[in-house]
Amino acid sequence: MAQPAWEKIGIYKAGIIPVTFKRVPCKRHGGVRFTVNGRDYFELVSITNIGGAGSIQSVKVKGSRTGWTPMSRNWGSNWQSNSYLNDQSLSFMVTTTDGATRTFANIVPSNWRFGQTYSSRVQF
Could you tell me the residue ranges of all domains in the chain? Predict the structure, then answer.
């Protein structure tokens, strides 16, 4: 959000605009979406349409020829892996901030390409 918009809802003091918020559970329609971006040896996966807590605590990825590997948060809903996972189907283990964990097995097929989005049938 741009600074002028923030200043409409908050009081600007010394470069800081305090914000008070409350998390509320959300109900989403459709499944969790995984958009794979990046380049070889750098998968940047955007995970969206998260129901329940609405925010993600941790993510692990598993290729069809690898074990589970933790991903690190890049920014926002983008999680990164510095692994070579090309030509492998991908599974994700997602834990939300309320502690719920769900595994999305082989959600991304082995013929995936960067820039594509895949949706699950299930939601948190």
Answer: 24-119
Cα–Cα distances in Å, from 74 out to 25, 42, 45, 114? 24, 11, 9, 17
CA nearest 85: which of 112, 59, 103, 120?
Answer: 112
Q: Which of 75, 67, 124, 73 is nearest to 99 (CA)?
A: 124
| DSSP structure class, residue 121 | S
The answer to whether 92 touches 104, Cβ cutoff 8 Å, is yes
14 has a pLDDT exceeding 80: no
Tens digit of each residue's pLDDT (9 = 90 or more) over 79-91? 999 999 999 999 9
Q: How many CA atoms lie within 13 A of 21 on its CB side?
A: 7
pTM of full prediction above 0.85: no
Q: What is the CATH number of domain 24-119?
A: 2.60.40.760
pLDDT at 30 over 90: no
